[in-house]
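Extended Data, panel c. Modelled sequence:
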Amino acid sequence: VQLQASGGGLVQAGGSLRLACAASGRSLSGYRKAWFRQAPGKEREFVATLSQNGGVSSLADVVKGRFTISRDIAKNTVYLQMNSLKPEDTAVYYCAAGTVIQSSRAIASAYAYWGQGTLVTVSS
């Protein structure tokens, strides 16, 4: 599976962005999907995940109520809608996919496939 992330950019605090992760090679329906992010000088951290069948989503506490993960089966794409952005959301955002069990959903090393990352910068 090849993943291509897009949609990053510069936005003011309080604004919104929607990231997209387009897959090719295989259907994303067979995998758990996730978004992670990595800020400068920090480790990669979990943001959101969607179960294999798309029925269950999980979000990191720091983004709950602001971010939403979703998918478009026909487009073989997973999205991350980010609202009420804060300067601390500034990071490179990565999409990931893999055969990942529920208990490992927030662990980056559990995912086999990764996109190249897209930079989100939130100005104050």
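The first strand starts at residue 2 and ends at 6. This feature is highlighted in the accompanying rendering.
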